[in-house]
Amino acid sequence: MEQARLYVLPPLPYGYGDLQPYMSEEQLRIHHTKHHQAYVNGANAILQRLDKARKENLDIDVKATLKELSWNVAGHLLHSLFWGNLAPPSRGGGKPGGKLADKIVEDFGSFERFQKEFSQAAISVEGSGWAALTLCRQTGRLMLMQVEKHNVNVYPMFRILMVLDVFEHAYYIDYKNDRAKFIEASWKIVNWDEVDKRLEEALK
Ligand code: MN
Asked: Ligand 1 centroid vs 181 CA: distance in angstroms?
């Protein structure tokens, strides 16, 4: 069977209501089924348009197409990482353990210092975007990345360990326009085991 070779919306590793009270069922459902889905659909539509244009040898606006493709593909990939970074409050939040805990202290001085810098990165994203914890494999350092939109200020090839979505669509139902309140709440539902797992894999 020929593969469709298209993007697919990944299922969440928990139920829509499982991140309450920090993220409501309605907020999470709309974020996943409408906003994330829109990036999947957007990316696939462009891929299919490209397939058609190549097959029929039609002219396309390459610059505009690649810009639109980057927005949609990066949006899809960041959301896919984001869902895995979250866990129900019964097993999420608190502080990291494992290798990650040691690495954070080594590179940031303390967990509290890391948390403060990450929150500040998230709060100060210009417009819509993401805060990310990444690993630079050349220096072995953990580095914060402040992404504007889905694809501006990205360090190519850095391994992304943890992201926080600060598009207003991530929190408008629960926190209106209060990004800081959303960021504070999000620390209660971080899946540290997953972040640690991604670090272990990135260090291999
Ligand atoms: Mn989002």
From this structure: 16
